Amino acid sequence: MPGQASIPPWQRRYVTLDGMRGIAALAVALFHYNISQAPHGYVAVDFFFALSGFVLCRAYLPRWQDGMGTWAFLKQRVIRLYPLFLVGLLVTTLSAVSNRYTGKGDIYSYEKIATSLPFNLLMLPSPVTNTLFPFNVPAWSLFFELIANLGLVLVLFRLPRLALLALCLAAGWWYAPVVLENEGGNLGAVWHQLDTSMVRTTFSFTAGVLIARLPQPASRPAGWLGVACLAAIAAMLLLDLPAIPPAHYDLVCAMVLAPLLVWIGARCEPPRFLAPVAWFLGEVSYALYAVHWALMEPLRYFKDDLGFNPVLMAFAYLGCCIALAWLCMRWIDVPVRAWLSGKNERRPRAARSEPGELSHAAVAKSAIGG
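Above: the chain sequence. Below: its structure as tokens.
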């Protein structure tokens, strides 16, 4: 269409959600690099699940109502998730192998690597280690993302809003005591927390679906409310408030603030001058989440062994993560997804709308019912 080439890529997007997802991914990476600089960065995972539930419901519920099958939906989700999952697993495995020679990080035997890797390559947990994905620990949430996606198309799309609310409350009732018992919400990456991982995912993902099923605004005004959302997600993940017990803080963030930020962020946009930055952070966020673990130990060497300034190294680490994420997205993820989408569909649609990428046009025709 005439004039389409001149439209910036952040137009007709949920730009505030893009930006919040990018900030959350940076907070996760910083938490893993230096916990003191992002003491509650792991709560970003709860935000990711809520955001994913919202976006996938808005994008796919109309297609499901039009007859889209479970297998077709899951194929599209695997096309979206697997290329960067594979890249992240490969680079983190290489990093893990290097630990045997540097003495840094977790050191695994070659036998354990050989027996774990085939399962992880299939996006399945390793049966021979306590950690589900020992070479790329954050990948546990991607495994549960796929489980939640299956639950979305098999169960959640069929439930009325009242049932979705009941499911949220039931999952929260189960999850909250576990967080209190463990004195924090950094849970889910190991086998003995498998049930906790499931209820943690269920609560946040279902909350996102419920938010998507609520009435949506006809327009999203740009202004400082969008900036406030970006600041709020950063504050939530980076602040350390000694007066509040960590478990209580995590529960409030995961069960109240994260869904609330998705709801507000879907109703406003940042000022025009911030839109490109927010869009870019959203674009690289998944790649950053997938690959940042590989850079953690190499960059810690400068901070821990050479004594470089921790704040300076935090910026250097995040900068390297963003650069690697952009390269992986630009030269691997986008072309591979385009090729796989072309193979999967008679009418190829490369880089489909997914979490953090949902355009307004993609959901403008959605009829979200009760």
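Residues 216 and 267 are 8 Å apart (CA to CA).
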